[in-house]
């Protein structure tokens, strides 16, 4: 059987296939003998020679993963490093992303966190339409097709991270700040689960730090320079852009900004008293009245500034890691020297 997403009309839809194995088959052959699979149109005798190994995720309690979906192109290396270190600080267990055509500076950062065992990065080439040209993720591109490809990646996360307690689907310009009494992403989600024990999906409101408004303070961190955010949540041109987390074994299908739980589980909002989710981004050209949105000052992120700078400066070979942004490293060191003396 399969589930196919038809949210957008595109050449290549995102589909998820499942193959049922009966209890009798498992008993007769033994689970350890189910090691590989292949896809055939009509008969197993016509299956391709290339077969895929079956992965069995190990159950890990007290864990939370992040699904970054697809990372590509000219991501800022220093901002990527800030994001990784912040999420290590937040107790995240692992991060997964597909990668495509990363520029060398940010690839060096990704490679570093892969070696640490914090990041799983799998190179992926998006499939072309039948008989069509090769395609990628860099702009100019067919936007709806790229969004559909992210659905493919999100559902891959669901399976790869099946052994974790929770998975959060988010981007590298997004950060969640736990509120008083909570220290980690797992604290937030386990608190939400206690309030909603039948939940399979959890919805987060998102507040945008619009970079068009400019920095409001001096900080060596990108996320420390902005303190003006949208007053209303979930802005992406209209007020609808919430974020989601889910419990893998309670989840049927994952979309970009929506989780479909398995029955009888439900989707529930994470209470705002547990967290604030921040999205650091600029206005898109087609967003009307974006730069004049109602705004308010929010300094909640700043409580992590000192610890985050300390963690980044403590990284081995930081100069080599951010070889393309020596000014960022110099500013971190100057700020730290001034702050602690």
UniProtKB/TrEMBL annotation:
<keyword id="KW-0812">Transmembrane</keyword>
<dbReference type="InterPro" id="IPR008166">
    <property type="entry name" value="Glyco_transf_92"/>
</dbReference>
<dbReference type="Pfam" id="PF01697">
    <property type="entry name" value="Glyco_transf_92"/>
</dbReference>
<comment type="similarity">
    <text>Belongs to the glycosyltransferase 92 family.</text>
</comment>
<dbReference type="GO" id="GO:0005737">
    <property type="term" value="C:cytoplasm"/>
</dbReference>
<keyword id="KW-0328">Glycosyltransferase</keyword>
<keyword id="KW-0808">Transferase</keyword>
<keyword id="KW-1133">Transmembrane helix</keyword>
<dbReference type="GO" id="GO:0016020">
    <property type="term" value="C:membrane"/>
</dbReference>
<dbReference type="GO" id="GO:0016757">
    <property type="term" value="F:glycosyltransferase activity"/>
</dbReference>
<keyword id="KW-0675">Receptor</keyword>
<keyword id="KW-0472">Membrane</keyword>
<protein>
    <recommendedName>
        <fullName>Glycosyltransferase family 92 protein</fullName>
        <ecNumber>2.4.1.-</ecNumber>
    </recommendedName>
</protein>
């Amino acid at each position: 059987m399969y589930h196919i997403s038809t949210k957008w009309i595109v050449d290549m839809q995102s589909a998820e296939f499942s193959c049922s194995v009966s209890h009798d088959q498992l008993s007769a052959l033994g689970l350890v003998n189910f090691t590989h699979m292949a896809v055939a149109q009509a008969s197993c005798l016509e299956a391709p020679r290339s077969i895929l190994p079956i992965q069995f995720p190990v159950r890990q309690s007290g864990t939370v993963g992040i699904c970054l979906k697809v990372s590509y192109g000219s991501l800022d290396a220093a901002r990527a490093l800030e994001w990784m270190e912040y999420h290590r600080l937040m107790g995240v267990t692992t991060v997964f992303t597909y990668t495509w055509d990363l520029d060398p500076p940010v690839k060096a950062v990704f490679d570093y966190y892969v070696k640490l065992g914090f990041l799983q990065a799998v190179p992926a080439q998006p499939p072309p339409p039948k008989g069509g040209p090769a395609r990628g993720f860099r702009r100019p591109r067919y936007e709806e097709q790229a969004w559909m490809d992210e659905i493919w990646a999100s559902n891959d996360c669901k399976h790869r991270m099946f052994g974790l307690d929770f998975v959060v689907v988010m981007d590298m310009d997004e950060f969640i700040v736990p509120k008083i009494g909570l220290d980690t992403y797992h604290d937030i989600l386990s608190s939400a689960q206690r309030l909603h024990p039948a939940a399979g999906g959890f919805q987060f409101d998102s507040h945008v730090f619009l970079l068009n408004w400019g920095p409001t303070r001096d900080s060596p961190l990108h996320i420390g320079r902005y303190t003006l955010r949208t007053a209303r949540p979930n802005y992406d041109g209209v007020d609808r852009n919430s974020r989601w987390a889910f419990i893998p074994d309670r989840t049927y299908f994952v979309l970009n900004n929506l989780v479909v739980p398995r029955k009888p589980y439900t989707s529930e909002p994470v209470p705002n008293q547990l967290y604030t989710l921040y999205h650091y981004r600029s206005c898109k050209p087609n967003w009307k009245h974006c730069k004049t949105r109602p705004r308010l000052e929010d300094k909640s992120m700043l409580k992590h500034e000192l610890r985050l700078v300390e963690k980044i400066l403590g990284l081995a070979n930081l100069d080599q890691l951010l070889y393309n942004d020596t000014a960022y490293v110099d500013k971190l060191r100057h700020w730290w020297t001034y702050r602690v003396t």
